[in-house]
Design goal:
Length: 305
């Protein structure tokens, strides 16, 4: 009985880890199986004509599957082809070589982070102005919403040409496009968050003769933090899309967008998917970094207002 009573009631750590990882693993396995099956279906016709000698050739279903999973210019490359391409890109070339995906990832990450910082600052400034000036809300907020209805593919070349004519080149023009997509979710979320304190809390600050700046710093900003960080996660993901799109019309030599454009020009679908996968990994890393920042900032805070 003593031994039984000493056993922990909660499951062990490894069981908890398995329980958390199992749903993700199941979804990943289903996606991989579906991907391999779709790769066979989409590549089969081309493989039969160009590799297996036509429908009347002496081949079986195993030959068909093997050929579709190892086709050089596949319609849909198999997952292991993409993984091998990324591995060889990282291992076989130095970090400053254009054939190394880390170079392109670093260039895109720099533009994304700069655009994220600029977009966050712009969103915070607009939210503070809108909350403290109701007239400004009616005048500016509709235009802020309308700005997001313009496709980024249409506005990116215009912004890049204008900034280029002013002498700006390199990371900044791409960061401006990333900022254009970042600031909107931050603005909308912070307007809601800055208005989250209840009337009683605001009247208490008024009783203490607090200025607008003191009320903003002591009451409104802490109350808005739970609204801010979800918007930052959306914003940094949108900024990554903006940075990649901004690399497409500029003829950039580096960046994931440039890698996508070059691979598409030469019809190298494996490299296209490799760049897309690296963009997805970069997006997850950046979003996770914002999540870690959220934990650090909100740790020890009391219940949300």
């Amino acid at each position: 009985m003593a031994l039984a009573s000493s056993l922990p009631l909660a499951p062990s750590r490894w069981r908890q880890a398995v329980a958390r990882a199992l749903p993700v693993g199941v979804v990943l396995a289903v996606l991989l199986l579906g991907w391999y099956a779709l790769s066979v279906a989409l590549n089969a016709s081309g493989v039969i004509e160009r590799v297996l000698g036509g429908p009347s050739g002496a081949w079986g279903w195993r030959d068909l599957i093997w050929a579709t999973w190892h086709q050089q210019r596949a319609v849909l490359p198999a997952p292991h082809q993409i993984a091998l391409d990324i591995w060889h890109s990282l291992r076989d070339w130095p970090l400053d070589d254009p054939r190394n995906l880390l170079l392109h990832t670093r260039v895109t990450a720099e533009a994304t982070l700069l655009g994220f910082v600029l977009g966050t600052a712009l969103g915070l400034l607009l939210a503070v102005l809108i909350v403290h000036a109701p007239t400004l809300e009616r005048a500016v907020l509709p235009w802020i919403v309308a700005s997001q209805t313009v496709p980024v593919l249409a506005i990116a070349p215009i912004v890049l040409v204008v900034l280029g004519s002013l002498g700006f080149s390199g990371v900044l023009p791409k960061a401006v496009i990333a900022m254009y997509l970042c600031f909107f979710p931050v603005t909308v979320a912070m307007v809601q968050g800055l208005r989250a304190p209840q009337t009683l809390d605001q009247e208490l600050m008024h009783t203490y003769a607090a200025t607008r700046m003191q009320t903003l710093w002591v009451l409104r900003l802490p109350a808005a933090l739970p609204y801010l960080f979800p918007a930052l996660r959306v914003g940094i993901a949108a900024g990554l899309v903006g940075a990649i799109v901004a690399e497409l019309p500029t003829g950039a030599q580096a960046g994931l967008g440039a890698r996508l454009l070059t691979s598409s020009y030469y019809g190298n679908t494996v490299q296209i998917w490799s760049a897309l996968l690296m963009a997805a990994v970069l997006g997850m890393v950046l979003t996770a970094a914002v999540g870690l920042l959220e934990r650090a900032v909100l740790r020890g805070r009391g219940p949300k207002l």
